[in-house]
Amino acid sequence: MHKLLTMSCFYHPTTVILVDDDEDFLRRMVQLLNRLVPHIMVKTFSNPNKALEYVNSVKNLSVALTPLFSADDYLPASGSAPFALDVSHIYEQAADPKIFDQISVAVVDYNMPNQMSGEEFCNAIADTHVKRIMLTGEADAELGVNLLNNGIIDKFLIKLQPDLEEKLAQYIYLMKKTYFQDLSAPLLRNLSPNMCTGLSDPAFVTLFHRICQECNIVSYYLLDFSCSFLLIDEKGNLAWLIVKTQKDIDEYLDFIQDTEVSDDIVDSIKNKEKIPYFYTQKDYMHSIDPAFPLEKYLYPATELIGETPYYYCLAREVHDFPLKKSK
Question: Which of 16, 44, 82, 280 is least crowded, fewest Cβ atoms below 10 Å from its Cβ?
Answer without folding.
Answer: 82
